[in-house]
Input
Amino acid sequence: DAGITQSPRHKVTETGTPVTLRCHQTENHRYMYWYRQDPGHGLRLIHYSYGVKDTDKGEVSDGYSVSRSKTEDFLLTLESATSSQTSVYFCAISEFPTGEEAFFGQGTRLTVV
Amino acid sequence: AQTVTQSQPEMSVQEAETVTLSCTYDTSESDYYLFWYKQPPSRQMILVIRQEAYKQQNATENRFSVNFQKAAKSFSLKISDSQLGDAAMYFCAYRGMYSGGGADGLTFGKGTHLIIQP
Output
């Protein structure tokens, strides 16, 4: 199994509070991604990174920011959590930007109350 | 933008039988990759099978095979000799061959919930 660890695995937070999810990899892959999974929507790309300090927006980036200060860590921040951000969040990694399959973390279930 | 459509929200099959999950996609690219991922109740995303668009031969992995019809933009997954452990959500996903200056990630369908009847 690819070495990807997401933390925390579960979190409940209140509306308006900041939340940071962490993705840590031990594979030294260049590309890292954050997806959210909601019923009836599959997985949708939030943000991705193609190197240290190199990030870009995905399909559903509003309300989220990311940072990558080290190859192994990719952080997803909800500056002010809203109930619409209740979801399961997945981190993924890949060595190449296209073609190669992505390897996924175990997911983080975030509930905003 | 690419889109991936899975028209079957749920499928049910008897153990040991064969089931086919449907997937269609829309893209203007000529080179790309297609994947089927399995998500069991554990929530882990597991790669089942992968197909390169430039390959005419359909990919096969043990009991899993695909029917890739490039002109029709169709990519179905056939599971033979279904087992209880195959019960899961199955997602079809697309990934382009060429990205514009960065990685664009995977585009997923909404998933098909596969039930295995003992």
User: Anything to note?
Assistant: The longest strand of chain A covers residues 42-51. DSSP finds no helices and eleven strands in chain A.
